[in-house]
Design a protein that fits this description.
Elements lengths: L3 E5 L6 H12 L2 E4 H14 L7 H10 L2 E6 L2 E6 L2 E2 L7 H10 L3 H16 L3 E5 L2 H5 L5 E6 L2 H14 L6 H17 L12 E4 L5 H15 L1
Parallel strand pairs: 1-6, 1-7, 2-6, 7-8
Antiparallel strand pairs: 3-4, 4-5
Bound molecules: cytidine-5'-monophosphate.
Length: 221
């Protein structure tokens, strides 16, 4: 049976950085499920579909083919045959992903793909509903969080390092709004699974978090 590590938590808690690093150390495949919701959102945006138009979204879900591939160990999301990794990291796509991930039709499609990926491979999968819904039998479940100010600061630093001008308060507001939507939607809301271990990274650096999760894994495997 494959070994599955589920990492859930709010936006900007460091899930992907940590999961990527740990996957490399353990020789696991890293699966970024947020990127799949972003790819769907990118499709809706580029096809002029409003986030409120559930009927059009349901229709579009039938036409959209999302798969993932790996290039130099990096996950690539392939949308209808095209690699969209270079287009899905914007705030616009992130907000659209949060708005459209509320629809069961979107979630069902992606959850199926995620389960298939974890079936026969050792994976570290991160998202919002991995421990609660996608992989309820994951051997290790982590709920990774940090205060909203810390998460906004990390995002702000990341964007300014890339030369993108941005406003701290706006980023923090976006994060708070996104968390609220993710935590209060009807289908698979973001919440800590009963058997997940809580890790608060507010006062920890990346290596400390990787180490903490690694030791939880060593204990449980
Ligand atoms: O993690 P990331 O910021 O890339 O995710 C974008 C959005 O996709 C989240 O705000 C959330 O609404 C949605 N998502 C989800 N379930 C997941 C992963 C992401 O609903 N497993």
């Amino acid at each position: 049976m494959s070994m599955n590590i589920a990492i859930d938590g709010p936006a900007g808690a460091g899930k992907s950085t940590i999961a990527k690093k740990l996957a490399k150390e353990l020789g696991f495949i890293y699966v970024d499920t947020g990127a799949m919701y972003r790819a769907m959102a990118y499709y809706f945006l580029t096809n002029g579909i409003a986030s409120s138009d559930e009927a059009k979204i349901a229709e579009a879900c039938q036409d959209v083919d999302v798969t993932i591939a790996y290039e130099n160990n990096e996950q690539q999301v392939i949308l209808n045959g095209k690699n969209v990794n270079g287009f899905i990291r914007t705030e616009e796509v992130g907000n659209m992903a949060s708005a459209t991930s509320v629809y069961p039709v979107v979630r069902t499609k992606l959850v199926e793909l995620q389960r298939k990926l974890a079936e026969s491979t050792d994976v570290i999968m991160d998202g919002r509903d991995i421990g609660t819904c996608v992989l309820p039998k994951a051997q290790v479940k982590i709920y990774l969080t940090a205060g909203s100010k810390t998460r906004a600061q990390r995002r702000y630093d990341e964007l300014t390092a890339k030369g993108v001008s941005c406003d701290f308060d706006e980023i923090e507001k976006d994060i708070i709004d996104r968390d609220y939507r993710d935590m209060h939607r009807e289908t698979s809301p973001l919440k800590q699974a009963e058997d997940a271990v809580l890790v608060d990274s507010s006062e920890m650096d990346i290596d400390e978090v990787v180490e903490a999760i690694r030791s939880i894994y060593e204990e449980k495997k």
